[in-house]
Amino acid sequence: MVSTTSKGETDLREYIQNRWNYVVLVDDTGNEITRINIDTDDRASWSEDYTNNPVEATITIKGSHNDIVDPDATDGTTISKTQSVVSDTSTTVLSEDTDIDVLIEADNDEAIVTHRIEYPTTN
Q: How far apart are alpha carbons 39 and 87 in whole angstroms?
């Protein structure tokens, strides 16, 4: 039997937070809305430590953000899932969270999106 120790799990979750630092917001038709760099975008942050499972990134989005709702759009933006990738150009999805259903329509709309990356444990 092969298993990962709790210290190994913590190290893997730390690796995820240090390398999988882009979250792609995806609309209800499967198209990319925008990519958020969790480390550099002030709208986003990681969970506080490396012991939580799932690893979580929290993103606060507003209708007034031009990368969320195009200023010329006549309809709102529906966010139906989030994906982890390693760069602003990567097409390789490393994790996907489909437990999201957010509609942003007006400039004053605000939502908190939590992107979760579940890592298997030894239990």
A: 12
Q: Based on the number of CB atoms within 10 Å of its own CB, is 25 exposed (0-12), middle (13-18) or buried (19 or more)?
A: buried
Q: What pTM, to 2 d.p., does this model score?
A: 0.89
Output the CA torsion sign for 69, 18, 82, 91. positive
Predicted confidence pLDDT, tens digits, the chain (123 residues): 667 788 888 888 889 989 999 999 999 999 999 999 999 999 999 987 666 778 899 999 999 999 998 888 788 899 999 999 999 999 999 999 999 999 998 889 999 999 999 876 655
How far is the CA of 117 from the CAs of 1, 35, 63, 76, 107, in angstroms?
Answer: 25, 16, 25, 27, 29
